[in-house]
Amino acid sequence: MSTKPDPAPLLIACALGIEHLALRSGDRTGADGPVTVLRTGMGPKAAERSLTRILADPALSEAAVLAAGFCAGLAPGMHPGDLVVAEETRDPRGSTPCVGTELLVKELVRTVPGRTVHTGPLTGSDHVVRGHERSELLATGAIAVDMESAATLHSAVRAGERPVAAVRVVVDAPEHELVRIGTVRGGISAFRVLRAVLPAFFEWHRSLLLPRR
């Protein structure tokens, strides 16, 4: 009698304590297989170190990796609380294509109704982007920027072939620039949105486990 193989784990990586709190406190029912929420620390180097270390664990060596957290929107008309689903992440080393983008968009629209979901390239930076840098990055075709997603996904695929994706919540946009990240904890709705997205992540993960036709 054959036994069903254990599902591959899901690793959700974020940088900040407030992001980790949102993801850890969200509804975790519906997960198909083990889920790890990793706080990498802030910046691309911290993300790379954390991912390399955790994926060396045999229990997570085949994990699907999803980078999550907050980002800065680059396009006019973006608002805090909007969602960004990356088609690819970019940094100076190149681009990392994301898997299951259309499914993530569909599930996020269902899970967080009323929120606008943007898709496109998500670019990486080693510092907080402000002012004219936004328009320069927008001119490259990127729709949003953060400090860890590109390094997270680059490190994940370097450690072994696996599905990767990135979903970010806009906290800061051209017409709504943040003074400091701590203000996220107040009136901005990004924390509540990030807390609500886990069911969409689990559906994405479940879809990867289905047999390919």
Strand content: 15-25%
Distance between the termini: 24 Å
**What is the helix fraction of residues, given as a range?**
25-40%
| Tally of individual helices | 7
What's the rounded overall pLDDT mean? 86
Question: Shape from CA axes?
Answer: globular
Q: How do the helices and strands follow one another from N- to C-terminus? A: EHEHEEEHEHEHEHH
* CA radius of gyration: 16 Å
In the predicted model, the low-confidence regions spanning at least 5 consecutive residues are: 1-5
Structural class: alpha/beta
Sheet with the most strands: spatial strand order: 3-7-6-4-8
In total, the number of strands is: 8
Largest sheet: 5 strands, mixed, barrel
Explain this structure to me?
With 213 residues, the chain is of the alpha/beta class. The protein contains seven helices and eight strands, in the order βαβαβββαβαβαβαα. It has a five-stranded mixed beta barrel, surrounded by four helices. Mean pLDDT is 86; it is low at 1-5.
Question: What layout of secondary structure does this protein have?
Answer:
Layout: E1 10-14, H1 17-25, E2 35-39, H2 44-55, E3 64-73, E4 83-91, E5 94-97, H3 101-111, E6 117-124, H4 132-138, E7 144-146, H5 149-158, E8 164-172, H6 190-196, H7 198-209
Brief summary:
The protein has helices at 17-25, 44-55, 101-111, 132-138, 149-158, 190-196, 198-209, and strands at residues 10-14, 35-39, 64-73, 83-91, 94-97, 117-124, 144-146, 164-172. It is of the alpha/beta class and 213 residues long.
